[in-house]
Amino acid sequence: MSELPETFKPRPYQTEAIEALNNGWGGTANNRLAVVLPTGAGKTVVFANLILEHLPHLAAQGKRALVIAHREELLEQAAAKIRAVAPALSIGFVKAERDEHQDADVVVASVQTLAVARRRKAIQDIGLVIVDECHHAAAPSYMTVLEHFGAWRGVPVAGFTATMHREDGGLAEVWDEVVFTLDILDMIEDGYLCDVRGKRVTIPGLNLDKVKTRNGDLQEGQLGRALDDSGAPDIVAAAYRLHAGDRPGVVFTPTVDTAQSMADAFNDAGIPAAAIWGDMPREARKAALKWYETGQVQVLTNCMVLTEGFDAPWTSCVVIARPTKSPGLYCQMAGRALRPWEGKKDALILDVMGASTRHRLAALTDLTERSAAAEEDDERSLREIVRDTEERVRRAVDLSQIQVEEVDLFHGSAVRWLRTEGGVWFVPVADGACVFLVRNPVDRTYWLRRYDPVGGVVAPRSDVPLPLADAKAWMERVAMASSNRWMTGSSAAWRMKPATAKQLGYCRARGITVPPGSTAGDVADLQAVHKFTAVLNRVGDLVAA
Known about the structure:
It is a single chain. By secondary structure, the protein is of the alpha/beta class. The chain has 16 helices and 24 strands. The protein has helices at 12-27, 43-60, 72-85, 111-114, 117-121, 140-148, 184-189, 220-229, 232-243, 256-268, 282-294, 327-334, 468-482, 485-488, 501-510, 520-539; strands at residues 32-36, 64-69, 91-95, 98-99, 106-110, 126-132, 157-161, 177-181, 195-202, 213-214, 217-218, 249-252, 273-276, 299-302, 317-320, 346-352, 384-385, 403-407, 418-419, 425-430, 433-439, 445-452, 456-458, 466-467. It has an eight-stranded mixed sheet. Strand 10 and strand 11 (217-218) form a beta hairpin. The chain starts with 11 loop residues before the first helix and ends in a 6-residue tail after the last helix.
């Protein structure tokens, strides 16, 4: 067998996921196993390599593999990745009028077509089933298809998703166990996803209290009307021009009308945009996606059709103009911007009405009958009032009334988290002192360390490496106990005041660039990053002694 292209060789965590599935099938009676990987982690590459690994054994038994998905884009991606990983394999399509399963090593099929008894009965000898976007698998159509192909009779079934969450519940009836999961924070820390920043865009006059809930989330039609009635499209376009003017991006909206009004507002603001939605003519949608790929349009607005199966890693901004109570949906939308791309420094999430302060960007593994809403995080208080005299939007938007706040997308903490230029997480706790995390080179865990100029680097008495989220929570408690809230708190009143002459002089003397409009808190953060980058570069490679 020829060597795999570098792009499709499994990364270490992808290999771990495959091993977890194989160990689960081999060591327990459970056969319906799931893997939860963040958007951008390459789940298609994982199951393509999983299929390649299992095919010799399947072929010896006269069996083959079946991949099930619910959208054409997912089917095409699956087929493309399998071909790239194993060019010698024959792949058959079963979807609508296509019926190419005869003699195929791998059958890629839509669940809608397999829900027709005649179509699924024609497909024989399936020994391995892959379910893409497996959080849909509790739907009756999936249950019928999976039962037919032996999911409850011992046939190995692997489900892949970015979020094991379904508003209607029932996933515990389908999946025996989540055998592998990976957090977005770990992916960013390892460099597999790009870093991310968030800004909350407040729309004056938008009252979400009037929007009713249906099936556990905000009702789309009422939400769309509320957005349009409040003038949100022009405000969002203006905020995008100010904060993401050079970024290609995707805007998520609740309705087709809102997607179209957003596209109109962006075009009037001088940002080339196109709208796409689920039932628009197929060729028109393909053309719009091609325009985005070639740069003819800078922004795609969409009515919830790009949450799955959309692969555009150059996207560096996502506008969530569809507030949601669903952590899973939020992660899917935000994840569209997290894939690395040449020249892409980070991703920016413009969060209309503050959904990012309600939902953490983290992989969710809730298999209970019904998932609870994400817990409320502490509201961030950093504010940036944007004033701009340009009037290039369709209806003269008073930009001085647009409120944009920095938000902590991941941790929602009262502590101000910072990272050195080398990527070390730290919290300043006193003059010249900080607490910081040291990566365990063996796995995705971290040690807590404290540094001060007198004592140097000190480890705690109980020196046990922890997963990143737990290590950060622990470090927050230590930081708050080691200093005062004035020093570590992200909402301290002094942070909102203008930067002092002393602060600005410090930055000028050391060549630190201070963006226009920076507050005292902003400049203090720049100073701390500059200072502790130099300090922690000398100690950042320490491991537990």
